[in-house]
Structures are given as C-alpha cells and as structure tokens.
Design goal:
This protein has about 210 residues and is mainly alpha-helical. It contains 8 helices and no strands.
C-alpha cells in the first residue's frame, strides 16, 4: 500500500472512532430514548447496523494501516468485504430512506454526518483507489452474507422480547413480519448486487495492476 493509501486508511479509522466516540455518550444521555437507563442506552448504540458497519470498516482499516503488506486469510478478507459493503449499504439506505426522518443539530448532526456520509465515502473510495486487491472472490462473497443475516435474526428476536427495533423498516410491531422481510429482501438484493460488482471490479483492477507492473 502506498503512503497516500495508508494516510487515507488512518483517516478512515479516525473518522469511525470519532463518530462512535461522540454518538455513544450522546445516546446514553438522551433520556427521551426507548430505554430508561444510561447503560442500556449506551449499549443499545451497538445494536445499530450503522455502528456495526462502521466498526467493521474501521477495524479492518486499522489492520491494513498497521500491517499493510501482511498476507491475510479468509476470515479477514470476509470481514474486509463486509466492512466495505455494509458501509456502502449504510450510506445508500440512510440517504435514500432515512435521512428525511432526522432533525438534528449540534454534536448529533456531526456524528450523524461522520457515520452516515463521511465514513461511507472514505470506505468505498479507499477500497476503489487503494485496495488492497485480491482479497475477495465468490467464496468470500458467500461468507459475507452470514453477518447481515445474523444481524437481522438478532434484531428481530431481540425486538420480539424488548419491543425495540433500530430502524423503521424493520419494526415488526408497526409493519408486521411480511412487510419487514420484504424490506430486508430489498436491502439484501442491494447488498448482493454490490458484492457481485465489487468482486468483478476487484478482479479487473487486479489484472490491470498486474499488467502495469
């Protein structure tokens, strides 16, 4: 990885850390939230797909920043693809569906901008511009589906017990399981389309880099 690529990667890590570091105490202090105690509100932050996708992106970016030339195995490669794809889905779904529901100001606006806009742009552009290439294939794509499915199962099961759903489009109490599963199917189609596009593009970029060398 080039020096510019490492700087970009460290910047991605910094944005993710800043966004989560601001969001967590804000949520804990928000007494208008669903949960009644500050610890519950704090830990509930990490149930959001937005936060988890940022953690995946930031964590894998940190590994690449620290060890840019180390060979990585299938577990890391899957997490890396998940980080890029999930942060892309986060940005797309937020700006297409959820942004109109927010009326934020101050630090809440800052962290929202970092987590839903800056991190997705840095994550996707960083992958496009700096790679590293060759970390994804169709087997990795298959494994990358596991995390979103687990998140959905966790969200629906937890919601059935505590009555909380992190996003309107997965709120079973409001829409019912049929509509929620249809909504999730649409997101799954987006995820798989991005995964297929990323894998195809990665192969082409890898061949182009090899030829140029």
């Amino acid at each position: 990885m080039t020096m510019t690529g490492r700087i970009w990667t460290w910047l991605t890590v910094a944005v993710v850390l800043a966004g989560i570091a601001i969001q967590s105490p804000l949520s804990a202090q928000n007494e208008e939230g669903f949960f009644s105690t500050a610890p519950e509100r704090f830990f509930n932050v990490f149930a959001y797909f937005t936060i988890q996708s940022n953690l995946l992106l930031g964590g894998t970016a940190l590994v690449l920043a620290l060890w840019p030339d180390r060979p990585h195995g299938p577990v890391f490669n899957t997490l890396r693809l998940n980080g890029v794809l999930c942060i892309a889905v986060t940005g797309i779904v937020y700006h297409a569906v959820l942004a109109g529901l927010d009326d934020l100001s101050g630090w809440a606006w800052v962290t929202n901008f970092l987590l839903h806009t800056v991190a997705p742009v840095l994550g996707v552009l960083g992958w496009l511009l700096f790679g590293p290439r060759g970390l994804t294939d169709w087997g990795i794509v298959g494994w990358s589906i596991v995390y979103p499915v687990l998140w959905l199962v966790f969200t629906l099961v937890r919601g059935a017990f505590v009555g909380f759903y992190p996003y309107p489009f997965v709120n079973v109490d409001e829409h019912g399981y049929g509509k929620v599963l249809l909504n999730c199917l649409l997101v799954a189609v987006l995820f798989l389309a991005l995964a297929a596009g990323a894998t195809t593009l990665d192969g082409r970029l890898r061949r182009k880099t090899t030829v140029e060398r």
